[in-house]
Specification:
nuclear export signal receptor activity, XPO1/5, mainly alpha
Length: about 270
């Protein structure tokens, strides 16, 4: 609820990338974890109700943070089938990762998830502490190694890029890069489109995209943080929306429908991404 209400990117990624996989791990009987071992040992009679509540929480996270907002009723059969398919796919992915993670251990070491978990959590912390930028440092092993804290490197003996943990850290950094930058780009695009809609004189379908971009550059009527390569696709995107809007509502009365038009652009933008 806090992530949805505050629209906080980092909090959303924490839930989707870290907390949600842990929840799915707990729900999958084919995956062994410490919480499942404790559950089986205790033989609690409340397991059924707990599983039901965890499934409900998992579905809520799927609806609000994973699935695109398309206005579909989450109780509908189609939405339920989508959630079930998604959950089964996520469980299968976790099983594959669990089976391959042992390859990262030093030769001769026995695989033990409970022993590996603290190190993995510290790797997550290391990656989370790095600044999010356009730099693809996950491709530059030496640069990524230098960004790790000295105490972390000393604790696990990470003295070179050949250390087995560097593969995991690089993968986590890549995931962070695409998830965070994707969300940031979507939000900047939405801000840009919202400013274009209210810009006067109003932009119309008949206006050429190149003329609109030239107008923005020459007159500096609005401030935007989108990269130059994203300007033309964003203007074309607005044209797509106006193509359906203008035959019904004339541009001169756009002000009275501004809230509705902004809502359409916001949801259309989320759906397209």
């Amino acid at each position: 609820q806090l992530a949805v209400s505050t629209n906080d990117v980092r909090l959303e990624r924490l839930i989707v990338d870290d907390l949600l996989p842990c929840l799915i791990w707990r729900l999958d009987n084919e995956l062994q974890c410490a919480t499942q071992s404790l559950r089986h040992e205790s033989g609690s009679s409340t397991d059924g109700s707990v599983d039901k509540e965890l499934h409900a929480l998992c579905e809520d996270l799927y609806v609000y943070l994973v699935k695109d907002s398309d206005g579909e009723d989450k109780e509908s059969r189609r939405a339920e089938n989508n959630y079930t398919s998604w959950l089964e796919n996520e469980m299968e992915n976790l099983r594959v990762k669990a089976g391959s993670a042992a390859k990262e251990l030093l030769e001769g070491s026995d695989w033990n998830w409970e022993r590996y978990l603290p190190a993995y959590m510290e790797m997550l912390e290391q990656v989370d502490s790095m600044d999010v930028s356009d730099e693809r440092d996950y491709l530059k092993e030496e640069a990524l190694l230098q960004k790790l804290r000295p105490e972390f490197r000393s604790k696990y003996g990470i003295n070179s890029c050949e250390h087995p943990y560097m593969l995991t850290i690089s993968s986590l950094r890549q995931q962070q890069f695409y998830s965070m930058n994707g969300l940031i780009y979507q939000r900047e695009k939405n801000k840009f489109l919202s400013k274009l809609i209210i810009l006067k004189p109003y932009i119309k379908v008949s206006d050429c995209s190149s003329d609109i971009i030239r107008r923005l550059r020459d007159k500096s009527e609005i401030q935007y943080e989108l990269p130059e390569w994203a300007l033309l696709p964003s203007v074309d995107f607005l044209h797509t929306v106006l193509l359906l809007w203008e035959p019904v509502y004339h541009p001169l009365i756009r002000q009275s429908h501004m809230a509705t038009l902004l809502w359409i652009v916001d949801h259309y933008n989320k759906g397209s991404n």
